[in-house]
């Protein structure tokens, strides 16, 4: 196996991302549609008179709707998209209502984490709804949602999901022209032998560690650690995959922080430049999700920095906290997978095999295969990373967006 160092390694990484096979230009269409759908959602929120916080909430809801829904048929994708608010709004409400009750908030967050992972036993739909529910709680922490903001935030979520659906199923439904996808087999086993059950326990344990240690690092940004643990478990099915995914998440975050110091900090939340750069980040997230979790995390991190710039809180110190919290979350995932109901180790995924298992968001629909003969990656292993059950959905699977 060739070993690359220095400039040659960098060139190989760039080549892998930007020259990876894209049969039918599915990744290109997937990413372009995301920019259009999220842009429309934010515009609709603006026309509805929502505040900046409402518009950000709407944009993130649209990103999740376009990234995580991975059913194998267009009809199934439409049904799942319609169910997203039903799964997410109660969780958003709970997070806002518990804003000033730390203990109840933390316990509820851990319960949502476990339930969101366990929901993967019901296939792509369960996975998508679990991701959306978890991310609504996460977004509430990200934006410091309070009960007074609930009506605006709920309206923004509904409007944005509708806007994203209009683009996905009306304006640009390229999946209708793709061949039918294979239906993924449900996970086998019973009780703790079922992978979704075991991972639900592991993710909850890892998130508990991340929450406690993350709060000691920052009483304000601790949720970054919990989010890192959650996304590391998306679309992984073995100890080796989880360990590798954690490393790639940290690497992508650190690289994104470095880029943010050069790009996001100087922009300092200025409207037009931030909007343009955010569109580039959205495209990058969706375009690279199926081929490189590290690159996807770079774009996710840069997008988060731009959003913090818009909110007026971006500083180099905040970026240092982001790196620390990501490291805590990765450590939580590693400890959980190694010591909580550990499964027998399996070989670590190679670039080719992880593409086949791809997918986080952000998991949008299935990522395109590395070659026409290669099975499509699942959202969780390639990532917004989002879930292995996404295989065959017709869109590149996301590995894990977010913040």
Question: Can you characterise this structure?
Answer:
- This protein is an all-alpha fold and about 400 residues long.
- It has 16 helices and no strands.
- About 55% of the residues are buried.
Strand content: under 5%
| Poorly predicted segments | 347-392
Order of helices and strands: HHHHHHHHHHHHHHHH
End-to-end Cα distance = 35 Å
**Secondary structure: helix percent:** 55-70%
Largest sheet: none
Quaternary state reads single chain
Would you count the extended β strands for me? 0
The average pLDDT is 84
Globular, elongated, flat, extended or rod-shaped: what is the shape?
A: globular
Backbone CA Rg = 19 Å
Give the count of helical stretches: 16
Short description:
The protein is 66% helix and 0% strand.
Topology:
Layout: H1 6-18, H2 26-47, H3 52-68, H4 74-97, H5 102-118, H6 123-142, H7 150-171, H8 195-217, H9 223-233, H10 239-262, H11 264-267, H12 271-288, H13 293-310, H14 316-339, H15 351-356, H16 379-382
Features:
about 400 residues, mainly alpha, 16 helices, about 65% helix
């Amino acid at each position: 196996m060739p070993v690359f160092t220095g400039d040659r390694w960098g060139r190989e990484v760039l080549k892998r991302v930007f020259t990876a096979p894209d049969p039918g230009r599915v990744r290109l269409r997937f990413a372009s549609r995301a920019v259009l759908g999220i842009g429309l959602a934010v515009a609709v929120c603006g026309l509805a008179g929502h505040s900046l916080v409402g518009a950000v909430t709407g944009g993130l809801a649209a990103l999740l709707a376009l990234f995580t829904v991975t059913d194998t048929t267009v009809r199934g994708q439409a049904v799942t998209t319609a169910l997203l608010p039903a799964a997410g709004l109660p969780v958003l409400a709970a997070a806002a209502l518990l804003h000033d009750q730390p203990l109840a908030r933390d316990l509820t967050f851990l319960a949502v984490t476990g339930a969101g992972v366990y929901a993967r036993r019901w296939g792509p739909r369960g996975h998508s709804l679990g991701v959306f529910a978890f991310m609504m709680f996460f977004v509430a922490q990200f934006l410091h949602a309070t009960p007074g903001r609930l009506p605006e935030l709920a309206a923004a979520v509904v409007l944005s999901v509708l806007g994203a659906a209009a683009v996905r199923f009306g304006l640009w439904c390229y999946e209708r022209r793709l061949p039918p996808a294979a239906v993924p087999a449900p996970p086998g086993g019973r009780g703790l032998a079922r992978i979704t059950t075991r991972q639900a326990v592991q993710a909850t344990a890892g998130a508990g560690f991340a929450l406690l240690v993350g709060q000691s690092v920052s009483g304000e940004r601790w949720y970054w650690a919990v989010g890192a643990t959650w996304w590391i478990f998306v679309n992984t099915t073995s100890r080796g995959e989880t360990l590798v995914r954690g490393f790639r998440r940290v690497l992508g975050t650190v690289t994104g922080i470095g880029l943010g110091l050069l790009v996001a900090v100087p922009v300092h939340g200025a409207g037009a430049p931030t909007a343009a750069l955010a569109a580039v980040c959205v495209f990058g997230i969706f375009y690279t999700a199926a081929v490189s979790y590290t690159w996807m995390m770079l774009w996710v991190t840069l997008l988060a920095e731009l959003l913090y710039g818009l909110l007026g809180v971006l500083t180099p110190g905040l970026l240092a906290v982001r790196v620390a919290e990501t490291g805590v979350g990765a450590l939580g995932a590693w400890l959980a997978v190694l010591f909580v109901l550990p499964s027998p180790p399996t070989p670590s995924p190679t670039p080719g095999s992880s593409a086949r298992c791809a997918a986080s968001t952000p998991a949008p629909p299935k990522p395109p295969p590395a070659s026409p003969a290669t099975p499509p990656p699942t959202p969780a292993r390639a990532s917004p990373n989002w879930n292995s059950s996404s295989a065959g959905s017709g869109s590149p699977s996301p590995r894990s967006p977010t913040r």
